[in-house]
Amino acid sequence: MQYNFNEIEAKWQKYWAENQTFKAENNSDKEKFYVLDMFPYPSGAGLHVGHPLGYIASDIYARYKRHKGFNVMHPQGYDSFGLPAEQYAIQTGQHPAITTAENITTYRRQLDQIGFSFDWSREVRTSDPKYYKWTQWIFIQIFNSWYNKDTDKAEDISSLVAVFEKEGNASINAVCDEDIAIFSSEEWKSFDSKKQQEILLQYRLTYLAETEVNWCPALGTVLANDEIVNGVSERGGHPVVRKKMTQWSMRISAYAQRLLDGLEKIDWPQPLKDSQTNWIGRSQGASATFKVNDHNAVIEVFTTRPDTIFGVSFMTLAPEHELVLQITTPEQKAEVEAYIEATAKRSERDRMADVKTISGAFTGAYAEHPFSKEPIPIWIGDYVLAGYGTGAVMSVPCGDQRDYDFAKHFNIPIPNIFEGVDISEEAFADKSKTVIANSDFLNGLPYKKAMKLAIYELEKLGQGEGKINYRLRDAVFSRQRYWGEPFPVYYVDGMPQMIAAEHLPIALPEVEKYLPTETGEPPLGNAEVWAWCTKENKVVHNSEINNATVWPLELNTMPGWAGSSQYFNRYMDPTNNNEIFSKEAMNYWQDVDLYIGGSEHATGHLLYSRFWQKFMFDRGFVPKDEFAKKLINQGMITGTSAFVYRVEFSIESAFNPEHDSDMNDDDIRLFSEFEKNLTSKIGSLFVPKSYVDKEYGDLEKILNNSLFNNQIAKEWSDYVLNKFEISEDQVYLKFQHLNPIHADVSLVSVTDQLDIEAFKNWREEYKNAVFILEDGNVYDSKSFPEDKWRGSFIVGREVEKMSKSKYNVVNPDEICAEYGADSLRLYEMFLGPLEQSKPWNTAGITGTHSFLKKLWRLYFDDNGAKFTDTEPTKDNLKTLHKTIKKVEEDIANFSFNTSVSTFMICVNELSTQKCTSKSVLEALAILVSPYAPHIAEELWSQLGNTASISTAPFPTFDASHLVESSKEYPISFNGKMRFKLELPLDMSKDQIEEVVMAHEKTQQQLQGRTPKKVIIVPGKIVNIVG
RNA sequence: GCUCGAGUGGUGGAAUUGGUAGACACGUUGGACUUAAAAUCCAAUGGACAUUAGUCCGUAUGGGUUCAAGUCCCAUCUCGAGUACCA
Fold first, then answer.
1. Quick one: which of A153, A570, A610, A962 could link to A618 by a disulfide (CB 3.0–4.6 Å)?
2. CA of A844 and C1' of B18: distance in angstroms?
3. CA of A996 and C1' of B34: distance in angstroms?
4. pLDDT digits (tens, 9 = 90+) for A685-698
5. Predicted-complex ipTM score
6. What b-and-e string marks burial along A348-375, b requiring 16 or more CB atoms within 10 Å of the CB?
7. Can you give the pTM of this predicted structure?
8. Which nucleotide is closest to A604, CA to C1'?
9. What angle do CA A52, A57, A62 make, to 5 degrees?
10. Which residue is nearest to nucleotide B4 (CA to C1')?
């Protein structure tokens, strides 16, 4: 009986689908286990072999947990809103919903063929109105909430209104906009509704604010930082300007500290936690205010080093700082304005990339030092960023390198306030070695004490306080796109109103064009039916807007992360139309036990999701304030690109017709045209990898020899030679350089041979290309009609990111067809540690494929089944239990690559032992089944079982089968292993020493010397020193 | 620059607390079977010398600790990832 993997895999995939084998129930006596993958964006290119890596790992874990008796939920869905479908719509007019649906069909087919144990009954799609209804619902909940710092959680906005009504806002301790005026309860009651709404908006967890965007006038659209290269748009190279727009923002900054604290209780990779920590960027220090001389203004700064306040010799404001124009003196005005203009021209990226150039301008104004009352010059400089802290710094050149460089550049004094430190070359920033000097009341104090005292004195003056600053900024939540969730928002007199939850979803309107409108409004501005009727509670035609009962709807849509920030909770109860999820479902599933996905989402999805989860927790919707207990980052599978080397050359001749002949002008012109024509007629000339290392001269010689053996070149050169009566050696190929060109990896054999015919047919421009083979001969299709690989042409290889543009994408469909899904699953795991990035090499898959064939032959030969009811031998049991132990340890450590090796060893051993014992083979099938589920199901059913193998309990490890009575000791001399000696394990140290010392090989090694020392570690090693 | 991670055969990688370096595969070479190929099986495969035995070198480099170091410590180099003037 043959291992017919195609048939077996199709059969079991059908069985699982029909029997809903992996459907998880929302209540069960079993313990729950929730295994989650990051759901994919269904791109038009489909899956490549790098994509399923994480899914295979999570699938192994999910299947293992089922064998261990857990009720496992392993859902999958699609993050189906996004830019590519929208851009395709702009180009072709095809509705993004259609593109998305087609792509999902491809994805589903590709996922199904790999044999995942997904519970497809729980599938979600973020672009499905039934799903985004709940994204809109969450937005409304966030809008109706404010953050109470006293209780340190989000509360319903009604609790805030209650306080306003009772006592005004003076005692409110909220995360809110800055500079909210204080009002009393009487004043609050006297405000009209619009004024009250304006005030509340300043407290809500999502609010409207003016934020800067990258606006590209030519494209009429907003661009992400990634879409801008060197200050112009990536598409088309149009100029980009900074523009203020009113947009929704989320007050994620309210959660900065809790997002930081929460990291301690979740089992996520340390590098990922580090990047979230850096992103949140907590720094402890003080805020201080400096009075500006001759102006009724103060500059507020944040500093982490209040202890160095006496070292301040100037202040620096960001060029965009609001005070700059106000305080600049008439004499400095021209210089300052020129500098501001120059800065505005540089994009934020440019400004940040260029660390070396020091630039700035003096405003002419002075501030007053809070303690010494000395005047301090105020400068502007673009190393200070408007978006961080207060956009102003107190510059302490002796203690900060950037301040130091700035001071040196502009000849500003650098007072030294550190005891025993030389600052003539660079600033001194080592807090732990700091002792303050020349600083009045701080003299002689170390960093910590000086910092405390400085803050205390600042507070006494009323010019500062201790402060914690976070880098994390509020998240902009509006996008000027079509293919995203519409907001459930309409505007009354410019004030945003939420549509009541019972009227959701507010579905995306149809538009004619997916581009922004001519007036620069978002694409939804093109919609004709996009107004809200408060009487009928439905979306109506824009013409009905009367600003009484019918109002305009919000034109922005939500960002990509909206739909992905709660999808893991929706999976618990995905078809519930009345609630985002039922209390029962949430109470049963609680949170994600294992989440697997890429680390590129560290500061995006994984931070926003934690934020929303904490919000949902505060408002009592979810029982856990962290959504995923454990997270694993799978590494990237890189591609192995193939290169052919194009010879850049020209045909030249040593023959100069003007001097060497009596040609007329016409012939001379004709001749030079022949030279050119010959070059282009030969067209592309390719050489294999081995030519890269050849000497310049050798290479040119080979090329010339080959070239004139080539038919095309010969015909042409003969023609030229005859026509002008010049000798052959006077026309030659001049070599310039080799240019590596990507060749599609599907045109290359596993032994790196190029299929030249296929390559020529791959692209029109290579149709007539000439190939010089390893042996220096020119490839001729007629000489190799039988064997396409015989013309030896070896390509170069290089590891790069797997991408379409590099022609190194390997499609899982072909792998599944040729080797089967089980081979693919095993191979992806076998490649290396899950979290590591590693190169794909299709050639290696024969290893796991032949392992599966060997496994199959343990159960079947040509005559059919081999298994019998015979008792297992001692060796059989030893092999089996060794394998159980190792595989369980490996799964616990997510070390799937080593468990594949373990299976190989196990099968090799059982084959050698000629094991036919059914009990052993049954256990083996279960062990393998999480990794290679199709073959395992087939073996299981052939062994006579009727239920799916996924219901079988995992074999239990029995240590008694591994008990050894003896050990082959390595005998080392001075740490070097010289020979091995089999000794009983119950031998005492003394007995071992006696036997080892008496051994003839020991004496031979010692050559009469007496050892200084004999180290014996029972069960491990013997080392003889001396 | 900073933070984190990593450097092991021709290649991917293994080596759980310091205890036989190179498991398991790929590739390569030789052999068996075959008209031939594929498939399968067997053998060899870190390097050098010696080809019986064996010796020396070897986990990026240089030092150190130890009976014993891929593993621990110090310094240096290289690569990768993240971050970006964070006051």
1. A153
2. 34
3. 52
4. 888 877 776 777 77
5. 0.92
6. beebeeeeeebbbbbbbbbbbbbbeeee
7. 0.89
8. B82
9. 120
10. A271
